[in-house]
Prior knowledge:
The complex is a heterodimer. Chain A has helices at residues 60-67, 97-103, 118-130, 136-149, 153-156, 169-178, 199-212, 225-231, 249-254, 259-265, and strands at residues 20-31, 34-45, 49-53, 77-85, 88-89, 104-107, 187-191, 217-221, 234-239, 242-248. Chain A is of the alpha/beta class. Chain A has a domain at 12-114 and 186-265: P-loop containing nucleotide triphosphate hydrolases (Rossmann fold), CATH 3.40.50.300. In chain A, the strands form two sheets. Chain A has a six-stranded mixed sheet with strand order 6-7-8-3-9-10, with helices on both faces. In chain A, strands 2-1-4-5 form a four-stranded antiparallel sheet, covered by helices on one side. In chain A, a hairpin with a 2-residue loop joins strand 4 (77-85) and strand 5. The two termini of chain A are 35 Å apart. Chain B is mostly helical. Helices cover 73% and strands 1% of the residues of chain B. Chain B has helices at residues 3-8, 19-59, 63-68, 85-116, 119-133, 137-156, 164-188, 192-200, 205-216, 218-234, 237-242, 260-267, 276-304, and strands at residues 72-73, 81-82. A two-stranded antiparallel sheet of chain B has the order 1-2. Classes of the chains: A alpha/beta, B mainly alpha. The interface between A and B is medium-sized, with 30 and 22 residues.
Amino acid sequence: MADPSALADSPGADSPAAEYAIRTRDLNLWYGTFQALFDVDLDIKDGIITSLIGPSGCGKSTLLRSINRIIDRLGYVRTTGSIEVLGHDVQRDDVELVQVRKQVGMVFQRPNPLPLSIRDNVIFGYRLHSGEKISKDRRDEIVEDALQQVLLWDQVKDRLGSPATALSLEEQQKLCIARLLPVKPALLLMDEPCSALDPEATSAVEELIWELRGRFTIVIVTHNMAQARRASDECVFMLMGKVIEHSPTERMFVTPTAQETSDYIEGRYG
Amino acid sequence: MDSSGAQASGTFDADRRNASWWVDRVVQALVFTGGVSAIVLIIGIFVFITGHGFGFITDHMDVGEFFTSPKWRPTSDNNPTYGALALIAGTASVTGLAMLVAVPFSLGAAIFIAEFAKGKTREVLKVLVELLAAIPSVVWGFIGLSIMNPLIIETFDVPVGLNVLNAGVILGLMAAPIMTTIAEDALKAVPEGFREAAEALGATRWQVIFKVVLPAARNGLVAAVLLGVGRGFGETMAVLMASGHSINLPTSPFDSVRALTATIAAELGETAAGSEHYQALFTLGILLFGVTFVINLTADLFIRGRRKP
């Protein structure tokens, strides 16, 4: 289970809100003058997999990327409202982004292993946060453990020193998940993690995500209805920067409440 | 021109060439000439230099003396000696110091422009750096003579300000812009995805640069430094003006030295074409040509080289 007390110095961590890993209130976001999110109020439960679905440009990636504030990289993004991650408002100016990103791991659309060896990729995040020298044995232990968890160990154990960029896309994406694990984040954000993969690789990575269920709070953006249905506990349907519906996956796909949701699910647009 | 009739009967003139065909041919020929001219020129220059210097190498040169003796006395009446060691040491010391100045400057500037500066600042800086690269070397030499010289005399309390330090600093400042431009290109070529990935893992900006961007750009950065070294080796006018131009094996940065290039520039006009001295100067040219050729070739291989993490 994700451990909400990881940021224990906060008063919010012990409040009833702790059953939610992420809560947004009145979240508005602009790219320059273009408004991409409108008054998003969202409560994402701790320890489950939540899918963000909706047509292209509906703001689901934007929402995901503002949770760990990686969206700030663009430099022309402005937000109002709040995003609480494990009880901390990450929108505040004095928040330490390094600490936020330690709690919130991210998997990107295109696998983006660093131009280092497989081993160094896995240990990269851990090295950043541990702040001390790691013994060789400890390092090998961490690397093996992480690669075991993503079911990659057997394929790569004999070539840990070779470049990660030489792996297949499926292996790269698994590696990108593996490198998050030693940091021990509470949340994993996944931005269409299978969109660059072929069907077989997709099902392998999906299986892996399902394996991780329960150990992390997972938020996954996907275009793929079937994937959302297969691989998530709850679904959030977004349209034009607004959250239209948020309900358990089963209910959303069987009895959606909003007309827009059922239109989308049935493939009338998107 | 009567194609309509020809086509109607199912035949056409397959050999017909119109103006476009000829234009295409001419342009192809022109572009080809442009393309091979670089090769022709470099071979031509090499043949020219070796042709003039080869007589010295075969007939007069004492290889041991050339590389180990600091006595460059080509104009001595009874016993001219051609020891290039002091000249080689002069060029090497000036270039070495220049790199000590230029590498931190240019890498710092490149990192700032590529990773930190945004929008207008970035554009203005890039243009300024490129302008800096366009300053004629004689102007740099002038700065060495008129500003650096008195400054060095006053600051370090030495008798002469035209020395390794002066020429090294001037040459470093000269080489820095081109090195900055190449290093910045190398940094910019590092995919955004790497930075994003590292940042999402919790790396600070410095960690992103130091642990991801710089290693990923390593080859391009090495190439930038090598091209700077090549520039330093080949630079003539500024070094001639700022180095003091006296034959010395330098033991401190305050010694005056003489560079290979400056020697050729200063002496070639004074020699009789085809004389021993004349040929010896061309031999210096062969040496310079060889060294810069190797440096630039290495730099090029680095730029092309596949990164091995």
